[in-house]
Amino acid sequence: MKKNNASIRKNRKIPHKFNQTGVMVFVVLMICIYVFIECYGAFNVSLKTQTALVSTVYNALDSQALIIRDEHSITGTEGRITVPSVADCEKVKNGGEIAKVFSTEENAKIYSDYLRLESEMEYYADMESKSVGQVTDVESLDKDILNDINALIRAETAWKFSDISEYSDDLNDKFTRRQILIGQDVDFSSVIKELEQEMKSLNVSSAKPSGYITADSSGIFSQYSDGLESAFDYGSVETLDTETLNTYISQAQNASQSSGIGKLITSFEWYFCISASAGDVASLKNGSKVDVAVKGSDKIYSCTIVSGAETDLNTQDTVLVLMCDDMNSDIASMRLADVEIRLNSYKGIKVPSEAVHINDEEKGVYVLVSSVIKWRKADVIYTGSDYVVLNYEPDLENGIKLYDQIIIQGKELHDGKVYT
Predict the structure, then answer these.
(1) Would you tell me which of 66, 149, 154, 239 could form a disulfide with 273, CB atoms 3.0–4.6 Å apart?
(2) Rounded to whole angstroms, how far apart are CA atoms 97 and 95?
(3) Calpha distance 323→246 (Å, rounded)
């Protein structure tokens, strides 16, 4: 095959002079096209604008955090079929019942189904008893519905199944309440009757528990357990070093939900533990407050810096330990989280860096007002990687006004120029 191809190439007669001329013409043509495009782009730049809105920007430290709690897994459930007696993140007393034990899976299922139906019937009975006069603000309810929809979308994107179920239930509740509020007739009696029939069909008397599991101390029950409840030294968290923290994080990266009944959290105080350079935390002080935002969610926690902010002179790395006393199902199941520690906040008009100009030694931006370019003076209060935050003073003469159309791209801009 190779010989035949070589033979074909030899026999194909192309004049050498014509081939060279064609290549030169092609190269010159491409250069001309390139120059034309560049010139057109330089002299025919259309204006691009951005609406002036007030926003808050944070100077933040991004990092991965390990969450350490005072907790232990609930033991003694191996080989036994259990059904929780308390809800997720519910408080329990020392000796209080946590779960019921059943002899067979069938009995456990019958009992669980009965409890679920009983809960549903109580819910609908409560909804039926509510009068329209108890709820008066449709607009507020609609805002709550929209917030739940957004939260549900985020939960689905992050594959957080427990959150998906929770937000779905909340939405169902709010939609029903909205129907009542706007005067629609909701037939609860038929739903309640149907639930009663289902409950009667279950032979719950023969599915009684064979035993109980009780709490060995007071605390908060969580159905989520990753098997690392006792792996980290809660009592020594304030003296945690970077090497130990990295070892802990490696363990947490390989953790997965265990099949046990859950765990008991015995203190409301828990910690974000973060590895950082000494330079990153130079502006922080132990004992001060910072906000910590968990990425991929709308959760923001107010935390106290307990250690790691004030380092020795020659220290390069430190472990920043942040304490928080909020508690919910999200916190109870967190082990590793990508977080944003908000060091400082800046409130103003956020625009691309190239939108800022200097006019007669005065810094500001150009805006488009009814096809006329106007100058607005403004000071830069924060500079980001590719943007700046401008001060917003409503009473400032010739300052930026809300909803001004700020020009973020354009050529030969000057005050008073008419743009057509």
Answers:
(1) 66
(2) 7
(3) 19
For 67, what's the count of Cα atoms within 13 Å in the CB-facing half-sphere?
25
For residue 319, which of 208, 246, 242 has the smallest C-alpha distance?
242
Q: Is 311 helix (H, G, I), strand (E, B) or coil?
A: coil
Per-residue model confidence as pLDDT tens for the chain (420 residues): 444 443 333 343 434 444 556 556 666 677 777 666 555 454 445 788 999 999 999 888 999 999 999 999 987 666 678 888 888 899 999 999 998 888 888 888 888 888 888 888 887 777 666 544 444 566 666 777 777 787 777 766 666 655 676 767 777 767 766 666 555 555 667 778 888 888 888 888 888 888 889 999 999 999 899 999 999 999 999 999 999 999 999 999 988 887 778 899 999 999 999 999 988 888 899 999 999 999 988 889 999 999 999 888 888 899 999 999 999 888 999 999 999 999 888 999 999 999 999 988 899 999 999 889 999 999 999 998 899 999 999 888 889 999 999 999 988 888 888 876
List the Cα angle 346/348/351 in 5-degree steps: 105
CA 40 to chain centre: 43
Distance of CA 227 to the CA centre of its chain: 25
What ranges make up the beta strands (E) of 36-96?
Answer: 48-51, 54-68, 71-73, 81-84, 90-92
Sign of the alpha-carbon torsion through 156, 157, 162, 168 = negative
Give bridge partners of residue 221 from the DSSP assignment. 90, 264
> Which residue, 309, 298, 393, 386, is CA-closest to 350?
386
Q: Is 9 helix (H, G, I), strand (E, B) or coil?
A: helix
* pTM of the predicted model over 0.70: no
Contact 85, 326 (CB under 8 A): no
Closest C-alpha among 380, 390, 271, 384 to residue 326: 271
Separation of alpha carbons 57 and 382, rounded Å:
9
β-sheet bridge partners, residue 265? 71, 220
